[in-house]
Structures are given as structure tokens and as C-alpha cells.
What we know:
28% of the residues lie in helices and 25% in strands. By secondary structure, it is an alpha/beta fold.
Amino acid sequence: MKATLMYGAGDVRVETVPDPVIEHPTDAIVRTVRACVCGSDLHPYHSLPHGDHGRPMGHELIGVVEEIGDAVTTVTPGDFVIAPFAYQDNTCVFCREGFHTSCLYGGFYGSPEVGGLQAEFARIPQADGSLVKVPGTDPASADEGLLASLLSLSDVYLTGHHAAHMGRVAPGKTVTVIGDGAVGLSAVLASRRLGAERIILMGRHTARTDLGIEFGATDVVAERGAEGIARVLDLTGGEGSHVVLEAVGHMPAYEQAYGIVRPGGVISRVGVPQYEDAPIGFGSLFGKNITLTGGPAPVRAYLEPAIRDVLDGVIDPGRVFDRTVAIDDVPAGYAAMDARQALKVMIAF
């Protein structure tokens, strides 16, 4: 089969590798219908040391079950399924408490042992807890918009939802979203779905912020740093934002977040942090009684109601995909996202 491997910063290749096989009774083999490139894939694209062995890439997938292990009971061959970006058993104590990305028996894609999901086929560990069926939908006849929205539920939209959920977005709240990437725009859509009264989107790419307005943003702030903080404070009468959703992962975005959050507010981070140390003292969090939350989204916790929202036409999160490539053209997809020529790239099989 063809699969995407990264050999170092900027070095993405599509190669022929052995097809995956059932290794454990809890595994399933899935034929990929759609996969995609994630903004978090650009972090190793910028910094991965070069080596002789490629890293399997990809963690977002919708597909059709081809084969199951002897212990798998919740899916059968032929089922159209969504695979969350992490695998989990959905029964351990942390899964039961809603934090599936901390599953005692789970993990993440992208290792040589598990493989990546930017590939024609994938081995899905813990299939009973990791695959969710899409009812009443045939991927062979489904339109592209529906497939894109279902694919967004494997990570990007539900990561935005997780940011809003952990930030306690609710009716009457003012929410500021930092970042106009696919996760930030998803956080705008999720905040609107949760009833936020006002949604300020901090971003400077007009094509993206225009989509953010369609998703529910009431204001757009293009300024960054001190100017951006001043602009948000001006928009909120000097009070700041009840909730700040940080969808970037870089220190300047975190500094903006604690600059614009109002006393007693919440900062919810879902941008993968590219730093280890962040201020939490009097001038940042402590002095204003700020709650800091967020982390890897437990997509599995939110999937069933989100699937229903997509099938019922309540939300259309797949609009964040603005380019589609074939598997052979995945390296060009990475380059397009890195150059900001594409917001989010879908891979069609």
C-alpha cells in the first residue's frame, strides 16, 4: 500500500510499504476513504531531525472496516467508521471519566509499531473503543461536503469543541479565539453551537476570518501582541473576555491569552504547546484568578452527538478543508499548508 512518511524537516515522501495486518485480537484493519494533513503535522515538518527511517504520518481518518480481530464486537467488515486521532479502549477509568487521550490502554498514531493514517489502509488498535460507525451513510455515494464534515470529527472540529467545552462556553459569554487555523475556526463554530453571545476571532488571513464570520464570529481582530490585546480590551469595554480559546500553541499566543482574559475567566488551550515553561504568576494568571485548562481532545467522548449534528445538517465543519489531493500528492499538500496557501488539506483515496 501507499503511505506517507516523514524523513526530516520538509522531507515528506509517499512510499509503498507492507499492508497492515491484524496483530492483536482487538485490532481492526480499515480501508481509508478520506484522511488529511493536520496543523500539528507541521511541527515535525519544521523541526524533525533527518534520519534514515521515515516516521509514519497522519492521525485523522474515515474509512471502511475490512477485517477485524477475534475480540472485536462493535464493528464488522463493511461498516463506515470514523477513527479519532488517538486510540483507546473506551472502558478504562480515564475513558469513563471522559479523558480518552489518557486511556490506560491507548496511544497515538505515528509510531513504527502502530503506523500512520495518511495511508491506503490502517491498523486500528482497540477497535471497539476507537471506531465509531456512521449510521445510514454509504461513503461511495455520499457527497464531498458530508465526507469532509465527517472527517473533521476525527480531530479538528472536536478539538475546537473540546476547547470550548473545557472553557465553559455558555450563553451570555464573550469568547475570544486566538488563531485562524482550522482548529481556531472550529472553536468559533463550536462556541456558537454552545450559545456564546459574542465571539472575537484573532486572525489576520482574510479568507480564513471570512469563514470564521460565517461560522459565528462577531468581531475580527487582526492585530497581534500588545496591539491585539488593546483591541480586544477596547471591544469589551476594558473588561476582557470571559473565555479565551488558544488554538496556536506558541508563546505569543499564550501571552495574548492572559492579556485579554477578564478577571475570573478561563483560558482553554488546545494548540499543541511548542514550549515547556509558561507564566502562571501574579501578572499572568494568579492576579486575576484565571483558570487554565485544555489539552489533547478526547474526541471519542464527543463523537456520537457530533455525528448526529453533521448528518442532521446542524453544523458543517468540513468547510475548513479547502484543498483535496491524492495520496501521491501529499507532499505538495504539506507544502501548501506550510506556505498558508491551503487552510487544511484533505486526502482522497
